[in-house]
Write a structure and sequence with these properties.
About 15% of the residues lie in helices and about 45% in strands. The protein has about 350 residues and is an alpha+beta fold. The protein has a five-stranded antiparallel beta sheet, with no helix packed on it. Strands 2-4-3-7 form a four-stranded antiparallel beta sheet. Strands 1-13 form a two-stranded antiparallel ribbon. The protein is elongated.
């Protein structure tokens, strides 16, 4: 900033005042604000869903499978936590510039350097965020093929009815068809038989023991798909759905050197901003580097009434470098080094001090 700096004749008609209190915006004033750093946490959590198969109770007896899913269960896990920073307007640091003559300031140079912000900064032009919920949420039937050829069997029986002939009764036979559904054990038995048939057929194709050999891998792929579906009838199904969350936190000096809870996470409930009985806090720790410690604004002694009323200083904010660590318990999820404006210091330049051209 010192390169190419020139000084001009002091302009006593130019006044810079903080907005608020008795200070009001009048016609012909210029308004600007100091920047504020906001942390944006991009969180990706995975929801794992386990659904038992309809024949889970017969898995060991009919297929030899062990450790299968026996009941429906949902669990969450943290997949990724990212930290981004955004610059916004600090609502407590608005300033107005008043002047009655030609003003020459370094406003545009400071804005280009990011040390001050307009009340309508360009950063908000691209502040569009789209959160898409990934994964597949199964709402229809999970097991469309239960593995049986026929789920209803028809049985034919012979029944008799009495018919009066003259003075006697005779029994006349007739056929009666009854439909009877299969029991769950019978369905499981047929599904297990088809599963073993698929495995045997694949083995015969791969070893060349069958008379018909496919010209490509389509038959093997279909056998593998059917085997996976029939195995799931006993072992159950599992799928994972990624969910995305965004949380914004505005840090301040009181958070420096301490651990601050950002959100809460539990295996049963996932990501939540409210603490629960089983939720574990995900905390943030900020360690400022203190590189702007020597930039504390020193107010010079007032020697005259003119200096007492003169307010010709242009205020801007110099950010400090901070190390941010996000942890859950003792496990580190992410870490970054970021510039944080509110951890730095406010500095003043003469309002008629020009940077560059």
């Amino acid at each position: 900033m010192a390169v190419g700096c020139t000084a001009t004749k002091p302009n006593t008609d130019m006044v810079v005042l903080p907005l608020g209190g008795e200070t009001r915006v009048t016609e012909g004033c210029m308004v600007y604000a100091l920047p504020l750093t906001v942390f944006e946490f991009d969180i990706i959590a995975e929801k794992r869903v386990e659904i038992p198969g309809p024949y889970a109770q017969y898995s060991r007896e009919m297929t030899g499978l062990e450790n299968v899913i026996m009941e429906k269960r949902e669990s969450w896990s943290l997949a990724e936590v990212r930290l981004n920073t955004l610059e916004e307007l600090d609502p407590s640091q608005y300033y107005i510039i008043q002047g009655t003559s030609l003003m020459q300031t370094n406003m545009f140079a400071l804005r280009k350097s990011g040390l001050i912000l307009d009340i309508n900064p360009e950063v908000y032009d691209h502040a569009l965020h789209i959160d898409r919920q990934g994964g597949t949420d199964h709402a229809g039937p999970l097991f469309t093929d239960r593995g049986a050829y026929d789920y209803v069997s028809t049985a034919t029986d012979t029944a008799y009815r009495l018919v009066k002939v003259d003075t006697a009764f005779i029994r006349v036979p007739y056929l009666v068809q009854r439909k009877q559904g299969m029991t769950l054990e019978q369905e499981a038995r047929e599904a297990a038989d088809r599963l073993f048939e698929l495995r045997e057929g694949r083995h015969m194709i791969l070893t060349g023991e069958t008379n018909i050999f496919p010209q490509d891998g389509a038959a093997i792929d279909e056998i593998n798909r059917l085997e996976s579906e029939y195995t799931a009838l006993f072992a159950g199904k599992t799928w994972t759905e990624p969910k995305r969350f965004r949380i914004w936190v505005t840090p301040d000096l009181s958070m420096a050197g301490t651990r601050t809870a950002i959100f809460f996470f539990s295996e049963g409930g996932g990501v939540n901003t409210d603490p629960g009985s089983e939720a574990t806090p995900v905390e943030m720790e900020i360690k400022p580097s203190g590189k702007t410690r020597e930039l504390e604004l020193v107010v010079r002694p007032v020697n005259s009434q003119k200096e007492l009323v003169a307010r010709d200083r242009l205020y801007y904010r110099v950010p400090d470098v901070a190390e941010i660590t996000v942890m859950i318990g003792d496990e580190k999820l992410c870490s970054a080094r970021k510039l944080v404006y509110q951890l730095g210091n406010r500095v003043a330049l003469p309002s008629n001090f020009i940077i560059g051209k």
